[in-house]
Design a protein that fits this description.
alpha+beta; VC0802-like; 2 domains; 7-stranded antiparallel sheet; 5 helices
Length: about 140
């Protein structure tokens, strides 16, 4: 159960994040989740939009000179309590899956926390989480947020 994520390279300069979000917003594409990472000379914005907006957002970004691509991430539903995320990390560790990165949703209709993770092995991750009773959030559920 994977979620489509858009990754975009942004220049490290004043206004670049605003321009990126404004471009999508002007086309009525809502950012459901957003993560920013800094690298030497540029930043990487990772975002989730509704599935029916993904291709349109990707095309719009590319048409406007952005380097953008999609990849798949796993969306995990986590009880809102201490040690909940740690227990999921333990499951992944026991199954030799490490995380490249993780970030949380900006909004959700769920009472639990919703965390996006990029595992080293998506299939092994999905299997380990399922076998250990961890609830994953489907693309259809994300589209309802």
């Amino acid at each position: 159960m994977f979620i489509k994520q858009i990754s975009v390279f942004l220049e490290n300069r004043k206004g670049s994040l605003r321009e990126f979000t404004e471009l999508l917003g002007n086309e009525n594409i809502n950012l459901l989740a957003l993560s920013l990472a800094d690298a030497s000379g540029f930043g990487i914005a990772r975002c989730i939009v509704k599935s029916n907006d993904t291709d349109r957002a990707l095309a719009l970004l590319r048409e406007n000179g952005y380097i953008a691509r999609t990849n798949s991430v796993v969306c995990v539903r986590i009880p809102n309590r201490p040690m909940a995320f740690s227990s999921i990390l333990s499951v992944l560790e026991e199954n030799d899956v490490f995380l490249e990165y993780a970030y949380s949703f900006c909004q959700s209709t769920l009472s639990d926390a919703v965390i996006l993770i990029r595992p080293s092995d998506k299939d092994r991750c999905e299997k380990a989480l399922s076998e250990n009773g961890v609830t994953m959030v489907s693309q259809e559920e994300v589209d309802r947020f």
